[in-house]
Amino acid sequence: MGGDHGPEVVVPGAAIAHDRHPDSEFIFFGDEKRIAPILAAEKRLKNAAKIVHTDVAVKMDDKPSQALRHGRRNSSMWLSLDAVRKGNADVAVSAGNTGALMAMAKFCLKTMPGIDRPAIAAIWPNLRSESVVLDLGASIGADAKQLVDMAVMGAAMARIVFDIERPTVGLLNVGVEEIKGVEAVKQAGQLLREANLPELEYRGFVEGDDIGKGTTDVVVTEGFAGNIALKTAEGTAKQIGEYLRASMSRTWRGKLGYLFARDAFQVLREKVDPRKVNGGVFLGLNGVVVKSHGGADAESFAAAIDTAYDVVRNDLNAQISAMLAHQMAAAPVTNPAVLKETAS
Description:
This protein is an alpha/beta fold. It has helices at about 5-20, 30-40, 65-70, 75-85, 100-110, 145-160, 185-195, 210-215, 225-250, 250-260, 260-270, 300-315, 315-330, 335-344; strands spanning about 25-30, 50-55, 90-95, 120-125, 130-135, 170, 200-205, 220, 280-285, 290. The longest helix has 28 residues, at about 225-250.
């Protein structure tokens, strides 16, 4: 029921995803009177979907605390998460209120052993191919241990999504020099170097432009900077698109040039189309949750389901658990105060 369009996008998106994954099945939580007619029109979902009715839906402008207080137990968002907790579903996918979804997911599913807080990870297109970037706004700020945990979780996701045995990892910083940056980032870098984990290759600090270059397979930062980077990239892509559209339509030469370069522009449009990489994965929970863009259309929501399908099929949480165990064995000292004392 969430997002800008609700079931009018979610149900057709599920139908598109089902074409790509015929073994998938869907449970739609929400207003049956609104969902049923849309579902009836999607004949390909006839034997692969059911509706669980509820009148309660979390609003897009609800505060997380308000949504958790009033929407717990009977809202469509809560029921979808509870289905994962009970084992009735493998993954919950929502285009609803991000803050509410994260608050409910933490309350309902709890965090994995050893994880202080979950993170939102997404696939980010770049000049080389794609990278996993996290955290994109699950929480603000992070200490050294939390950054290391995110590096491990992001690497586990990269192994699955990119089929890479040992993904490269970089910590987002204001410079690549070891003396730069806030203390938590420098301490996290020290931990990752000393741990030398077999499942990831720590490459050191990376800067903002390295995200677009694809310098590393995984880029780790705290949620405040990560969310700003995400929104800036999305805005820049739209800005460039508007510039190109305006310049191509201003004169007859521009229109003629567009005709000759139409195929190239189509390739560019596909590379920067956020619909192709929709779906932020909530990492660090005892269950899989994927957040779609609120303004997603059916094709974009289907991409979020594709992401959910991949991480479940490859048992992402089991990989994260195994890598966290290796991390703790390799670098048991993660107290920032101890690190600071050791460094001095």
